[in-house]
Write the structure tokens for this entry.
Amino acid sequence: MPDAPTASPGSSDAAATPPAAAPSSRGWRDAWQIPTAILAIALVASGVALLVSRAPGPDYEAVLHDVETLIERQEPARALDLLNGPITLELGQPGAPEDVRGRFHALRGEALFLTFRTGAPDMKSEAAKRNNENTLKEFEEAEHRDHALLTPRRERFIAETLLDLRRYEEALDKIRHLPEDVATQRRDLLRRLIEETGRGTRTDRDLSNEALAALAEDEGLADADRLWIALRRARAMMGRGEADGVIDLLLPELQRSGDAGGLEAGDVHLMLGRAYLMSGDIPRASRHLSEAETLLPPGNERGGEVEVGLAKVAQAQGDIEEARDRYATVIERYPGSDAHSFALLGLGEAEADTGQTAASIAAFRELAADIRGRGLPPSLSIEEIAASVEQRHRAAIVNVDLPAALAYAQIMIDLYPPESTPAGALIRLAETHRALAEEATGEVAEGESLTRLLSLPPDRLEQARTNLAAAGEAYLKHSAAAMVESAEAASASAWLAADCFDRAGDQERAIRLFSDYVDRRRNDPRYLEGKYRLARCFQARNDYAAAISLFEEIIKANSTSDEAYRSYVPLAQCYLLQSSDADAEKAERLLLQVLDGRMFSPEAPQFRRALIELGQLYLRVGRYPDAMMRLAEAIERYPAAVELPRLKFDLADACRLSAAQLRQQLNAAMPLSARSELEALRVERLRRALGLYEEVRAALDGRDPAKLSPIQTMLLRNAVLYRGDCAFDLGDYDTAIRHYDAAAQRFGNDPGSLVPMVQIVNCYAAQGRWPEARTAHERARSRLKELPPEAWQHATVPMDRERWEKWLDASMRISEERAAADQPPPG
């Protein structure tokens, strides 16, 4: 029906026209369309539902059947592609059947296992590791849903995967429980496990023996298998040195398996030959080894072991050359084999026996590297190799060939993993390093170690320090390794470690170790010695306050102990080094106590050290006559002292400086007779100093400059220089110039060469030889400009204030003389 007319929203009629009345309802006659529409919708929905319910679901069975077929046809990669396809998504849905999921995981485990092993994969690669771990996860998922899914074949796959991952203990447990359906594969897996673990750690070797026992219990073994087991047991027994047991085991087996093939019989004869060798029955060893050589196929790896055995026979019969040739042949022809390791061991022994130490060491080093790279042959133990190397180490010690002994000691260390190095190897390494250090330093008396080290040539000093530091490290490791077996040995090594670090100049570590020793071992016999050594370390570190406290504590609490007596001199040294007058007085009193004869005889090292220290104390504080007396006494008493050149130099210094004091006294008014006596005494002391400096020069001049220690180099330079000073003070300027010129020429590269050049200027000035003085002055100024400002301020350069003043005076006179010479003569 037509719609009623309406006015537009903007027209005038919209307001005038009244609204139309609403139409009245006519009931169900007008609403019949609504139920009809609802019914239609319901019918459509039920139809869709019916269609969906009757649609076929995912055909899991068909996919899994195809996967099984592909695996049977040895196409695991295609099977894996199917398993990684749509079925993976379908099985992820909530309604996927559990039994289907279990089969899926079991088949994917198989496919992963077989796919990766197609071709020749690298089973040690990261990809192999990930694949093996994923394989195990798939089988674990399958077992979680239904244990029956792990068929004997799949159980075997799991065992092999565990072997690939080197999870040997789990693999052995799985292999043991493999059913008879896969008995042949079970034996093969046991053999593989035995082979792989037989050359590993002690734990692995124990596992290998356990697997060997499991294989021996197998009732279905063939004669060849039993012979293989006997050979494996024989190898293990050989590794333990049980030669008689090997012979008793293999002789019956050789008879029992008379029909065995050449390889097995050759192996038995080889093992018997080695056992007879070990037991010392050389003729029988030779017979069995020769038989093995005949039976083994050409090119077989065991041929190398036979060759090694025959080399040992030759060695035992005294034919070392033949033995060496056979060993060298094996090393060349059988690299990477078990025989290669045996040949290196034999060659190391043979070379040592013929005195070819370097070749012996090279062979043993290669053997150690071989073991680290590929492990031990089953019938060769690290202990056997270490015992052989140790024998050579001891021989080198007896022959006083310490470098060779050190090389053998280091090889013993290299044979073992760092975490399992035995205490015996560590102590030998420590003792050898210590012996090399003592060879470099010589015998060192108490209180002499620092003097001795500082007097060494630089190369020997570095050698001593390097070996002492290495010995300290080895002693520390030995202390830790020996703690369980012998607390006493551990304590001794802890002490020696501290001692070595102290002597090597590593005071920080020495202080830590001695402090720990003193804190932990108050009842130890070395407790007081530890406190004394700790004090000495503080002294060496220039911590004089800490050292003084400890020395004073030792003397006060243990006044009659040896450590107390030994503390007097170093305590005096610490007082002196604190550099106060009060401390110098304390030091003098202590040193005089040592020298009064009540505590020590003149032969005691403490007496000698105190005498020298007292002389040097007097020299340091300017009491030159007292210094001369004490230093002269030291030189007379100890003419063979290691520091003799230094003592003579100090005595010469005391004489020269005493003469300078006398010259100052001569400036004062005094009677002529007294002046004559003082002048004669001054001249006498200068001449004595000149002679002593010459003795020092002669003692050090003949040595190789590269072999001189820094202190000896300084003594030599200053002795040559001070000869000129003595001649200068004696007024013998020509002689002084010769000495100064020799010093300037000889030590031209040393900043101290400036001093003699300046003194030459002063000599010419004193003689009034101004042209020569002017030339020498220009040379000295050129040398000064070449030097950095701090060079001549160094303590070892004897350019003191007086020398600068004299040079300045001379330079001013030179300028005056030059100006006078430039003036024209008067009218």
